[in-house]
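Reading is simple: the token line describes the chain's fold. The lines below illustrate.

. . .
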Amino acid sequence: IIELFYLFELIEIGTYQEPVSAGYGNVIDDSTMKLQVYPQTKVSSQADYCVIVSGDSMFPLYEEGDILFVKKAETLKNNEIGIFFHNNETICKRYNLKGDIVILISENKEYEPRKVLPEELVIRGKVLGKYHVDWGFLS
């Protein structure tokens, strides 16, 4: 990992220390955010904050421990992956608006899609890419 950092300029991004759920929801709170250093890339340079993945509902795209680069957004297009607040849980899912219903879809087919009313959902941002410390992998 240290060798990887030497290949890039570094950037500090606020990272929530409480993981965001890719399964059943967790709660993230601004008091758990701290600055972390990441390689500066086209993706990381656009991020407003980062979250850590917990769970397997977004597997194989994202897995436990991945760090997601997130751009703040209040709206998403269909099929974009976002960070959402719903029923006191912060979750990572694929977004689809079908008429008057939002369907939040997991990549892992073992999880049923969540159907919610748009007014019950807060979009916290669009996932831009991931970083996994164990691999030193950016995408």
